[in-house]
Design brief:
heterodimer; A: mainly beta; globular; B: mainly beta; 0% helix
Chain lengths: 117, 112
């Protein structure tokens, strides 16, 4: 079946512009996660959705970052007024997990490579 | 807070040799531990996971890992390396809020 998909695969933007990154999770997966992978910081958690709610937003680095999920499916990560330090690969993952503490596997998408000039 | 440490950012082995990638964890509660692999320009793929059942966990592509509580370790091994195993490997622990906390990764090179 289809895996997690993300779009665009690559995004180049100018400093100060807003960007939107999209994630389509595996059908039926209630949990959705955003991570960021950068040279300096490695793999970092950003935000976790259970359904349309985000019980854990602790990894969002600043108020320029926001995310939403609608219909328990697609999620959008928005970065406002992008900075050069936002350049990274943004990874989305989904899992079946219907409750906290589940050991269900997180399946990752291929990521969106964001470059801020 | 839970965390993992991966010793060795780069490991190089000959084809056919043993692969050993090290991961130590820190956790105040019984941890759930994972190994993921990342091939160039791809996302992360789960190799195996420990969820407090058997301490020796077998994964895909011939990899396995053993959970050793006394050593707080979860090292990844494969008896015989293939060229196709060249990739970056990440150890992770499941933290509060269901997020994964990753180690810094180990890049495995396989020499012909």
């Amino acid at each position: 079946g289809a895996g997690v998909s993300q779009s665009p695969s690559n995004k180049v933007t100018e400093k100060g512009k807003d960007v939107e990154l999209r994630c389509d999770p595996i059908s039926g997966h209630t949990a959705l996660y955003w991570y960021r992978q950068s040279l300096g910081q490695g793999l970092e958690f950003l935000i976790y959705f259970q359904g349309n709610s985000a019980p854990d937003k602790s990894g969002l680095p600043s108020d320029r970052f926001s995310a939403e999920r609608t219909g328990g499916s697609v999620s959008t990560l928005t970065i406002q007024r992008t900075q050069q330090e936002d350049s990274a690969v943004y990874l989305c993952a989904s899992s079946l997990a219907s409750s906290s503490g589940s050991t269900d596997t997180q399946y990752f998408g291929p990521g969106t490579r964001l470059t801020v000039l | 807070a839970q965390s993992v440490t991966q010793l060795g950012s780069h490991v190089s082995v000959s084809e056919g040799a043993l692969v050993l990638l090290r991961c130590n964890y820190s956790s105040s509660v019984p941890p759930y531990l994972f190994w993921y692999v990342q091939y160039p320009n791809q996302g992360l793929q789960l190799l195996l996971k420990y969820t407090s059942a058997a301490t020796l966990v077998k994964g895909i592509n011939g990899f396995e890992a053993e959970f050793k509580k006394s050593e707080t370790s979860f090292h990844l091994t494969k008896p015989s390396a293939h060229m196709s195993d060249a990739a970056e490997y990440f150890c992770a622990v499941k933290s509060s809020g269901d997020k994964l906390t990753f180690g810094t990764g180990t890049r495995l090179a396989v020499r012909p």
